[in-house]
Amino acid sequence: MGSETTLKVCGEEFEDMLPKMTEKLGGEGLIKESYNGFNLLMNNDKGVTNFESLKYN
């Protein structure tokens, strides 16, 4: 991999960690972690991610 991307927002510099995460976890591991992250944002009563669940979670 090796290529690192940085983004500057409001004078702050942010590094794109996705390539490092992919290298460490592999493709399948990255998908599993993404799935778990989206589940944390979901409204469990409705089974969807919506604006309210994003604000709450």
UniProtKB/TrEMBL annotation:
InterPro entries listed in its UniProt record: KIC/PBP1/KRP1
Superkingdom: Eukaryota
GO MF annotation list: calcium ion binding
PANTHER family attached to this UniProt entry: CALCIUM-BINDING PROTEIN KIC, CALCIUM-BINDING PROTEIN PBP1-LIKE
Protein name per Swiss-Prot or TrEMBL: Uncharacterized protein
Protein source organism: Helianthus annuus (Common sunflower)
